[in-house]
Amino acid sequence: MTTATRTLHQSLLVLDANHGAVRAAIGDAHHMHALVMSGFADRLQQYDFFTGQTTGHADHRAALNIQHAVSLRPDNTIRVLVRSAVPPHWDTDASGKWVDALTTAPASHEYIPLLEGAVRYELRANPIRKGPDGRRKIALRQHDDLVNWWHRRATNAGLTLTGTPSIDLPWTLTSRTKTDRTTQHKAGAGFTIGTHRFTGFAIITNPDAHLAALTEGIGSARAYGCGLLLTMRPPR
Prior knowledge:
Elements: E1 8-16, H1 20-27, H2 29-37, E2 46-48, E3 53-55, H3 60-63, E4 67-72, E5 77-84, E6 107-111, E7 117-125, E8 128-130, E9 137-139, H4 143-156, E10 159-175, H5 180-185, E11 191-204, H6 207-216, E12 229-232
Antiparallel strand pairs: 1-5, 1-6, 2-3, 4-5, 7-11, 7-12, 8-9, 10-11
Helix pairs in contact: 1-2
């Protein structure tokens, strides 16, 4: 069976961690989200009162499958990897607050995913389960719970894990930024997101499911740097 191809795009932003806008993005997950989304500002939903027509996407992060992952480096830079269904534009006015923090020009290219064989993977995720009321989200913290969560998610992502996954580098994302969405859910707005890094080896056993996971991401908090599945060939 042949898996339908899908064009994806990736960009790597290498940013000076001392820059004011970058420091704000490191300290507040919503600011990082805004930094990433500035590359797609031309696709925001807009309403034309003269024609009555609406263009763009109401939720263009999900509609365009925009994901990102962040890595802090010892050389006092951060690397932001952005994957999307459409190419970004990093040279618009929306990027003006942080564009001078770039240490090199953004490296953007079409992403051709691996869809067969053995892979090494890495995933920063927000493992959760539903509470007793079926609505409230409860963060998973126990090692066995995290392993079981990842086994289920990996299977849904078309992967058969080989060996025990490594789960390390827990990190809590926070934000105190008030948005329409956060103020709907709790007083004072803001949020915290518990994350863990999953690494290991697997075999791609369902190419269609795997492509969907690479395109759409895995789990919750995908707007805030969780769920972007990275794969590469394992060392020989």
